[in-house]
Amino acid sequence: MTESTERMIHVQDLRKNYGNFQAVDGISFHVKQGEIFGLLGPNGAGKSTTIEMLVGLRKPDGGTATIRGFDVVRDLHQVKEVIGIQLQSTTLFELLTVKEILELYASFYKKSIPLEPLIDDMLLTEKTNSRIKTLSGGQKQRLAIALALVHDPFIIFLDEPTTGLDPQARRTLWDIILKLKDKGKTTVLTTHYMDEAQVLCDRIAIMDQGKLIGLNTANGLIKQLNADSTVEFFAKVEIATAELESLNGVLQVETRKGRYTLFTNDLQNTLVSLLQFANERDITLSDLQTHTATLEDVFIQMTGRSLRES
Fold first, then answer.
1. Average pLDDT taken over every residue of the chain
2. Among 13, 165, 210, 273, which has the highest number of CB atoms less than 10 A from its own CB?
């Protein structure tokens, strides 16, 4: 496979401004054939705007992007033939049945795939003749993905596909996305769920305030911390960062709103040293927690705040 065919999507210095606000600020990345590529970040990071530029819904203010060699501005008609899109808010014709709306969407394209196997793959067989207004949230999301697949595209864009779904519906959708990969589809998805990105994505681009601040596999991003574990706790009194950094095994310290995060490669030694320090200073530590390093810790180290706080 050549480099040109391996890269299904190529983005270079892509920008989108709204007045003085830079929604997407010069990001660059590529997506390989057959991979699940994730854009991870808080609401307002620029993930959805990036997707909307790639699929032709918004015109970039700078930079370039190509999909299978087609420029997303100059060659938009060709781009639309090779992509499928599930947007964060998809409005469906509520009075149509599942089968009717799939037939309608199929009629928009020169070619389409057989609908019955597609309905089966989306676990909607029992709902084939049900009106859309009767479907659950998870079923509507699976239908939206079916509509994106009806013309057998090479690349699927999924914008926050599991937002608002219950845990079981999320897991069901994860299985469907992984099966798309097994069928050779290239998938780009946006999410603000760390577990979702870690389970699904071959590579993850972390976005914050319009910038791409990290890009690697989940394990690769976590290894960049150079820390195997973290220790977190609250303290009512302010503790100097330098004092915590002097504790045994501590590699880095992050502080936010009275919560302290210690990154360490020697969890036991750091815990003993921390408790001894707190006892000597008569400092009460509350909500003390330890865990192996995660994507949340990566985001904290890169931005100084939690993804959930953003």
1. 91
2. 210
